[in-house]
Amino acid sequence: MTSHVAVLTADRAIDAHAVAAVADALGASATRLTDKAFEFGCSGTAPLPPAPPGTDLNRVAREGRQKRVLIADMDSTIIPVECIDELADFAGVKAEVARITEQAMQGALDFEAALGARVALLAGLPLAALETCYRTRVTLSPGARSAVTTMAAAGARTALVSGGFTFFAERVAADAGFASFRANVLESAGDALTGRVTPPILGRSAKAEALTALCAAEGVGPEAVLAVGDGANDLAMIEAAGMGVAYRAKPAVAARADHRLDHSDLEALLALQGLTPG
Protein backbone atom coordinates (compact mmCIF):
# COMPACT_ATOMS: atom_id res chain seq x y z
CA MET A 1 0.00 0.00 0.00
CA THR A 2 1.28 3.46 -0.86
CA SER A 3 2.02 5.81 2.03
CA HIS A 4 -0.03 8.65 0.58
CA VAL A 5 -3.26 9.27 -1.26
CA ALA A 6 -4.20 11.95 -3.75
CA VAL A 7 -7.67 13.27 -3.01
CA LEU A 8 -9.71 14.74 -5.87
CA THR A 9 -12.66 16.90 -4.76
CA ALA A 10 -15.14 19.41 -6.14
CA ASP A 11 -18.36 21.15 -5.20
CA ARG A 12 -20.42 18.92 -7.50
CA ALA A 13 -20.28 15.46 -9.05
CA ILE A 14 -16.94 14.93 -10.75
CA ASP A 15 -17.04 13.90 -14.40
CA ALA A 16 -15.83 10.35 -15.08
CA HIS A 17 -13.36 11.66 -17.67
CA ALA A 18 -11.73 13.88 -15.02
CA VAL A 19 -11.41 10.94 -12.65
CA ALA A 20 -9.91 8.79 -15.39
CA ALA A 21 -7.43 11.51 -16.34
CA VAL A 22 -6.09 11.72 -12.79
CA ALA A 23 -5.97 7.93 -12.47
CA ASP A 24 -3.98 7.65 -15.71
CA ALA A 25 -1.58 10.41 -14.68
CA LEU A 26 -0.91 8.76 -11.32
CA GLY A 27 -0.93 5.19 -12.64
CA ALA A 28 -3.39 4.27 -9.90
CA SER A 29 -7.00 3.19 -9.69
CA ALA A 30 -9.67 5.51 -8.28
CA THR A 31 -11.59 4.82 -5.09
CA ARG A 32 -14.93 6.61 -4.89
CA LEU A 33 -15.72 8.31 -1.57
CA THR A 34 -18.74 10.25 -2.85
CA ASP A 35 -19.80 11.48 -6.27
CA LYS A 36 -17.68 14.59 -5.66
CA ALA A 37 -14.66 12.96 -3.98
CA PHE A 38 -12.24 10.28 -5.18
CA GLU A 39 -8.87 9.10 -3.94
CA PHE A 40 -5.88 7.42 -5.54
CA GLY A 41 -2.75 5.82 -4.13
CA CYS A 42 0.28 7.97 -4.85
CA SER A 43 3.91 8.64 -4.05
CA GLY A 44 4.76 10.95 -1.19
CA THR A 45 7.28 12.87 -3.28
CA ALA A 46 6.45 12.75 -7.00
CA PRO A 47 4.67 15.88 -8.29
CA LEU A 48 0.91 15.60 -8.58
CA PRO A 49 -0.65 16.15 -12.00
CA PRO A 50 -2.68 19.33 -12.52
CA ALA A 51 -6.20 19.11 -11.15
CA PRO A 52 -8.89 18.98 -13.83
CA PRO A 53 -10.80 22.27 -14.21
CA GLY A 54 -13.17 22.97 -11.32
CA THR A 55 -11.55 20.44 -8.99
CA ASP A 56 -8.89 20.32 -6.28
CA LEU A 57 -6.19 17.66 -5.93
CA ASN A 58 -4.36 17.31 -2.62
CA ARG A 59 -1.81 14.79 -1.33
CA VAL A 60 -2.45 13.37 2.16
CA ALA A 61 -0.40 10.92 4.21
CA ARG A 62 -2.31 7.77 5.16
CA GLU A 63 -0.85 7.65 8.65
CA GLY A 64 -2.80 9.82 11.09
CA ARG A 65 -5.13 10.89 8.32
CA GLN A 66 -8.29 11.10 10.42
CA LYS A 67 -8.03 14.06 12.77
CA ARG A 68 -9.15 14.38 16.39
CA VAL A 69 -9.68 18.14 16.46
CA LEU A 70 -11.34 20.53 14.00
CA ILE A 71 -10.65 24.24 14.43
CA ALA A 72 -12.28 26.52 11.89
CA ASP A 73 -12.44 30.18 11.00
CA MET A 74 -15.93 31.65 10.58
CA ASP A 75 -16.08 34.57 8.13
CA SER A 76 -15.53 33.56 4.49
CA THR A 77 -15.01 29.97 5.65
CA ILE A 78 -17.87 28.43 7.62
CA ILE A 79 -20.04 31.28 6.35
CA PRO A 80 -19.50 32.88 2.92
CA VAL A 81 -19.59 36.52 4.10
CA GLU A 82 -17.57 38.83 6.34
CA CYS A 83 -19.99 39.84 9.10
CA ILE A 84 -18.24 43.13 9.77
CA ASP A 85 -18.65 44.14 6.12
CA GLU A 86 -22.34 43.26 6.24
CA LEU A 87 -22.81 45.24 9.47
CA ALA A 88 -21.03 48.16 7.83
CA ASP A 89 -23.65 48.09 5.09
CA PHE A 90 -26.31 48.80 7.72
CA ALA A 91 -24.16 51.69 8.97
CA GLY A 92 -23.64 53.09 5.46
CA VAL A 93 -19.86 52.51 5.47
CA LYS A 94 -19.53 49.14 3.72
CA ALA A 95 -17.11 50.22 0.99
CA GLU A 96 -14.66 51.71 3.47
CA VAL A 97 -14.86 48.79 5.88
CA ALA A 98 -14.64 46.16 3.12
CA ARG A 99 -11.47 47.80 1.80
CA ILE A 100 -9.82 47.51 5.22
CA THR A 101 -11.08 43.93 5.61
CA GLU A 102 -9.55 42.88 2.30
CA GLN A 103 -6.19 44.42 3.20
CA ALA A 104 -6.21 42.72 6.60
CA MET A 105 -7.11 39.32 5.16
CA GLN A 106 -4.35 39.67 2.55
CA GLY A 107 -1.91 40.32 5.42
CA ALA A 108 -1.18 43.88 4.31
CA LEU A 109 -2.49 45.34 7.59
CA ASP A 110 -2.10 44.31 11.22
CA PHE A 111 -5.30 42.45 12.09
CA GLU A 112 -5.84 43.95 15.52
CA ALA A 113 -5.35 47.53 14.31
CA ALA A 114 -7.54 46.90 11.27
CA LEU A 115 -10.31 45.45 13.43
CA GLY A 116 -10.25 48.49 15.69
CA ALA A 117 -10.42 50.86 12.74
CA ARG A 118 -13.37 49.03 11.22
CA VAL A 119 -15.35 48.70 14.44
CA ALA A 120 -14.87 52.41 15.14
CA LEU A 121 -16.84 53.09 11.95
CA LEU A 122 -19.78 51.16 13.43
CA ALA A 123 -20.18 53.50 16.43
CA GLY A 124 -23.85 54.29 17.01
CA LEU A 125 -25.19 51.35 14.99
CA PRO A 126 -28.36 50.09 16.74
CA LEU A 127 -28.04 46.64 18.29
CA ALA A 128 -31.18 45.62 16.41
CA ALA A 129 -29.12 45.78 13.21
CA LEU A 130 -27.05 42.79 14.37
CA GLU A 131 -30.10 40.54 14.51
CA THR A 132 -31.33 41.82 11.15
CA CYS A 133 -27.89 41.26 9.65
CA TYR A 134 -27.76 37.71 10.97
CA ARG A 135 -31.24 36.82 9.71
CA THR A 136 -30.84 38.35 6.25
CA ARG A 137 -27.14 38.06 5.39
CA VAL A 138 -25.63 35.04 7.19
CA THR A 139 -25.88 31.47 5.87
CA LEU A 140 -23.63 28.44 6.20
CA SER A 141 -21.17 27.68 3.42
CA PRO A 142 -22.05 24.55 1.41
CA GLY A 143 -20.88 21.43 3.20
CA ALA A 144 -20.12 23.20 6.50
CA ARG A 145 -22.67 21.47 8.70
CA SER A 146 -21.99 18.09 7.11
CA ALA A 147 -18.23 18.43 7.72
CA VAL A 148 -18.62 19.55 11.34
CA THR A 149 -21.27 17.06 12.41
CA THR A 150 -19.60 14.11 10.67
CA MET A 151 -16.28 14.84 12.38
CA ALA A 152 -18.05 15.24 15.71
CA ALA A 153 -19.86 11.92 15.23
CA ALA A 154 -16.47 10.31 14.51
CA GLY A 155 -15.23 11.55 17.89
CA ALA A 156 -13.48 14.80 16.98
CA ARG A 157 -13.55 17.93 19.11
CA THR A 158 -14.92 20.82 17.03
CA ALA A 159 -14.34 24.52 17.67
CA LEU A 160 -15.21 27.70 15.79
CA VAL A 161 -12.52 30.32 16.43
CA SER A 162 -13.25 33.67 14.84
CA GLY A 163 -11.69 37.09 14.61
CA GLY A 164 -15.29 38.23 14.15
CA PHE A 165 -17.88 38.71 16.85
CA THR A 166 -19.55 36.55 19.48
CA PHE A 167 -23.02 37.70 18.45
CA PHE A 168 -22.58 35.88 15.14
CA ALA A 169 -20.17 33.15 16.23
CA GLU A 170 -22.55 31.83 18.88
CA ARG A 171 -25.34 31.47 16.34
CA VAL A 172 -23.17 30.10 13.54
CA ALA A 173 -21.57 27.56 15.89
CA ALA A 174 -25.02 26.31 16.87
CA ASP A 175 -26.20 26.19 13.24
CA ALA A 176 -23.14 24.27 12.06
CA GLY A 177 -22.89 21.93 15.06
CA PHE A 178 -19.64 23.10 16.67
CA ALA A 179 -19.06 22.07 20.28
CA SER A 180 -17.55 25.46 21.21
CA PHE A 181 -16.79 28.90 19.86
CA ARG A 182 -14.51 31.86 20.55
CA ALA A 183 -14.68 35.35 19.04
CA ASN A 184 -14.43 39.05 19.82
CA VAL A 185 -17.01 40.96 21.86
CA LEU A 186 -18.55 44.12 20.44
CA GLU A 187 -18.94 46.75 23.16
CA SER A 188 -22.35 48.40 23.47
CA ALA A 189 -23.98 51.09 25.54
CA GLY A 190 -27.74 51.26 25.76
CA ASP A 191 -29.14 50.05 22.47
CA ALA A 192 -26.17 50.87 20.21
CA LEU A 193 -22.56 49.90 19.51
CA THR A 194 -19.84 52.10 21.00
CA GLY A 195 -17.37 51.49 18.17
CA ARG A 196 -15.02 49.50 20.39
CA VAL A 197 -14.12 45.84 20.94
CA THR A 198 -13.81 44.50 24.48
CA PRO A 199 -10.16 43.45 24.91
CA PRO A 200 -8.30 41.23 24.44
CA ILE A 201 -8.72 41.03 20.68
CA LEU A 202 -8.77 37.53 19.22
CA GLY A 203 -6.44 37.62 16.22
CA ARG A 204 -3.73 35.50 14.58
CA SER A 205 -1.79 34.56 17.71
CA ALA A 206 -4.98 33.90 19.69
CA LYS A 207 -6.14 31.43 17.06
CA ALA A 208 -2.87 29.52 17.36
CA GLU A 209 -3.22 29.60 21.14
CA ALA A 210 -6.74 28.22 20.83
CA LEU A 211 -5.36 25.32 18.79
CA THR A 212 -2.80 24.59 21.51
CA ALA A 213 -5.49 24.70 24.21
CA LEU A 214 -7.73 22.32 22.27
CA CYS A 215 -4.85 19.89 21.86
CA ALA A 216 -4.17 20.00 25.60
CA ALA A 217 -7.84 19.39 26.38
CA GLU A 218 -7.91 16.38 24.05
CA GLY A 219 -4.50 15.06 25.03
CA VAL A 220 -3.19 15.16 21.46
CA GLY A 221 -0.50 17.01 19.54
CA PRO A 222 -1.03 19.48 16.68
CA GLU A 223 -0.53 16.66 14.19
CA ALA A 224 -4.03 15.48 15.19
CA VAL A 225 -5.65 18.80 14.21
CA LEU A 226 -7.42 19.92 11.05
CA ALA A 227 -7.43 23.72 10.83
CA VAL A 228 -9.26 25.56 8.06
CA GLY A 229 -9.44 29.23 7.16
CA ASP A 230 -9.01 31.78 4.41
CA GLY A 231 -7.23 34.89 5.68
CA ALA A 232 -3.89 36.03 7.04
CA ASN A 233 -5.09 35.83 10.65
CA ASP A 234 -5.71 32.08 10.10
CA LEU A 235 -2.19 31.36 8.90
CA ALA A 236 -0.59 30.55 12.25
CA MET A 237 -3.18 27.90 13.10
CA ILE A 238 -3.14 26.51 9.55
CA GLU A 239 0.64 26.12 9.65
CA ALA A 240 0.59 24.60 13.16
CA ALA A 241 -2.02 21.95 12.34
CA GLY A 242 -1.24 18.49 11.06
CA MET A 243 -3.75 19.15 8.29
CA GLY A 244 -3.85 22.86 7.51
CA VAL A 245 -6.40 23.74 4.83
CA ALA A 246 -6.70 27.01 2.93
CA TYR A 247 -10.34 27.28 1.87
CA ARG A 248 -10.91 29.60 -1.12
CA ALA A 249 -8.16 31.57 0.53
CA LYS A 250 -6.19 34.71 -0.10
CA PRO A 251 -3.07 33.99 -2.24
CA ALA A 252 -0.60 34.49 0.63
CA VAL A 253 -2.46 31.92 2.70
CA ALA A 254 -3.02 29.42 -0.08
CA ALA A 255 0.69 29.51 -0.96
CA ARG A 256 1.73 28.45 2.55
CA ALA A 257 -0.95 25.91 3.43
CA ASP A 258 -0.29 22.19 3.02
CA HIS A 259 -3.68 21.71 1.42
CA ARG A 260 -5.89 24.07 -0.53
CA LEU A 261 -9.51 23.96 -1.62
CA ASP A 262 -10.14 26.51 -4.33
CA HIS A 263 -13.20 24.90 -5.91
CA SER A 264 -14.57 22.29 -3.49
CA ASP A 265 -17.19 22.79 -0.83
CA LEU A 266 -16.43 22.07 2.82
CA GLU A 267 -17.38 18.40 2.61
CA ALA A 268 -13.92 18.08 1.04
CA LEU A 269 -12.55 18.33 4.60
CA LEU A 270 -14.05 14.90 5.16
CA ALA A 271 -12.62 13.47 1.95
CA LEU A 272 -9.13 14.61 2.92
CA GLN A 273 -9.50 12.38 5.99
CA GLY A 274 -11.03 9.45 4.11
CA LEU A 275 -14.43 10.12 5.70
CA THR A 276 -17.83 10.30 4.05
CA PRO A 277 -20.74 12.46 5.21
CA GLY A 278 -22.70 10.92 8.07
Distance between the termini: 26 Å
Shape by Cα distribution: elongated
Q: How many beta-strand segments? A: 11
Structural class: alpha/beta
Trace the largest sheet across and list its strands: 8-7-6-5-9-10-11
Order of helices and strands: EHEEEEHHHHHEHEEHEHEHEH
The unreliable regions are none
Largest sheet: 7 strands, mixed
What integer is the average pLDDT? 96
Number of helices: 11
Q: Determine the strand fraction and express it as a percent band.
A: 15-25%
Question: What's the layout of helices and strands?
Answer:
Blueprint: E1 4-9, H1 16-26, E2 30-34, E3 37-42, E4 56-61, E5 69-72, H2 83-91, H3 94-106, H4 111-120, H5 128-137, H6 144-153, E6 157-165, H7 166-176, E7 180-189, E8 192-198, H8 204-218, E9 225-229, H9 235-240, E10 243-247, H10 251-254, E11 259-261, H11 268-272
Parallel strand pairs: 5-6, 5-9, 6-7, 9-10, 10-11
Antiparallel strand pairs: 1-3, 1-4, 2-3, 7-8
Helix pairs in contact: 2-3, 2-5, 3-4
